[in-house]
Amino acid sequence: MDLLVEIRGKSGALIGHPVLKSVQAVLRHVGIAERYLLRARSERDEDLYNDVIYRTNQAFEGVLKAAYTVLTTNSSAKLSPHQIEQHLLDTQVLSSRVLDLFRNYRQHWRNPSTHEHELFFNEQEALLAIVSVSAFVAVLLDQIIEKINYDREQQSLQTRTEDLQNIVSQGLPLHLEVVNLLIRFSGDLLASTPDPSQLREVELIGRLSGFIESFDPAIKSVREPLLDDQARPDLLLTRGDEQVVLEVKRPGFSSRALALGRDQLHRYLEVGKLRHGILYIPPAATETVTSTCEKGTVAGMEVALHFVVPENPKRSAPNPGPQADA
Asked: Is 127 in the same domain as 198?
């Protein structure tokens, strides 16, 4: 995989947002770091490996500034790189996966190259620095894209307060309210997006989180909560003492995604000791979503799996169960 190509592809989701300019500068630094690496090899000039690290450091600091601006909605202009790093750590706005990559790059390249002027890097370290910062940028971009889509969705719904209040009847349990919201969101998605299948999952989840929380501010969403060492549902929705796990797949009917999602929900409910899980597969093109429910027992506990998925075009998909009424 060419990580630079991957990052460029992700940056396409930022078109129209001011942060795109910062991300393009980050891409430039990574590209120059790669050229320095190639020059060091061809010219046998080992001093150039340090120049690789200096460029990856600039990419690291640049993407952190971009993330700070988007994730905190504050300007980073008057803050030093250290202040930005510390704020992102103190406020815990970085996802756990981003945080792991952040600490790795800062510990092995950023801090040594900044504080140890007699340190010289070799070819392997320069290569690892490029790979590490590129992976960090790619993963952090996902979080930036998700937040931008969350904000855009909430802004688009500000003028539809009365419309939102009529979406779901008052007094529904959280899981049924979310099911109804997913059906309505599907309609909005088709109306606003020519081809939903082209959306990245992070764009979709960002919009979906913004939609749900706009309708009911009492609903709080947590992205990829760690239920055990491996179980990470896309979203954990809470309202008071009610909790629902929500797993989201790419738009368009897929029997494979349906089967995988069912298995994942079983796992999440078991390790999280939860009673309700929802699988959401958004519609693509002219598809229509349906809502069904499958009741069962997991680890001796009665549970309900809710499916909001497109109708099978061949009308032969396994039936998850009766209409959601749990």
From this structure: no
pLDDT per position as a tens digit, 189-230:
999 888 898 899 999 999 999 999 988 889 999 998 888 877
pLDDT for res 161? 60
| Confidence at 282, pLDDT banded by 50, 70, 90 | very high
Q: Could you say which DSSP state residue 230 is in?
A: S
When divided into structural domains, the chain yields a total of: 2
Q: Are residues 180 and 252 in the same domain?
A: yes
Per-residue buried b or exposed e for 247-257, using 16+ beta carbons within 10 Å of the residue's own CB: bbbbbbbbeeb
Same domain, 29 and 118: yes
Q: Which of 155, 156, 138, 121 is nearest to 45 (CA)?
A: 121
Q: Where are the beta strands (DSSP E) in the chain?
A: 220-223, 235-239, 242-248, 276-280, 289-298, 301-310
Q: Are residues 70 and 100 in the same domain?
A: yes
